[in-house]
Amino acid sequence: MIRYALSCDHEHEFEGWFGSSGDYDDQQARGLLECPMCGSKGVRKQIMAPAVAGTKRTAREAPPAQTQAMMMEAAGRIRRHVQENFDDVGDAFAREARAIHEGKAEDRGIYGQATPKEVRELVEDGVPVAPLPPEPAKKTELN
Ligand SMILES: [Zn+2]
Question: How far is the CA of 112 from the centre of ligand 1 (A)?
């Protein structure tokens, strides 16, 4: 069932229930709709303003642009955390990650560069690696 807010040509406002939007069109076309207050058949759907119903979470949902900015912000924080707390091993990443995994190097957090092939081999061997979020494309001063 669909509820429509209707009004007649005398500005009386009332509600009508229909099985579908086609039902409304059909009844309207056959002149079956009339105002319960004045009997006018000049009944039309009221223009509905956009509305949000449901949970507070839905109502407060951030617009996409803002969500993206927040995600970039979070990615930047993760990246900063890694850069401040993990060892930069550069392009020795794959070798070093494997050495740590096999207990041949000091167990610590590292980051660096690896080729997709190296990453795939590490993952296949059960070495926990994860991509670092990309540098936020923001115009911030370096250093
Ligand atoms: Zn009316």
Answer: 74
1 Cα to the center of ligand 1, angstroms? 23
Read off the pTM.
Answer: 0.45
pLDDT in tens, 21-36: 888 999 989 999 999 9
Model confidence at 59, in pLDDT bands (50, 70, 90)? very low
Domain ranges of the chain: 2-45, 63-124
What is the SS3 assignment for 71? helix
* CA nearest neighbour of 44 among 36, 55, 33, 52: 33
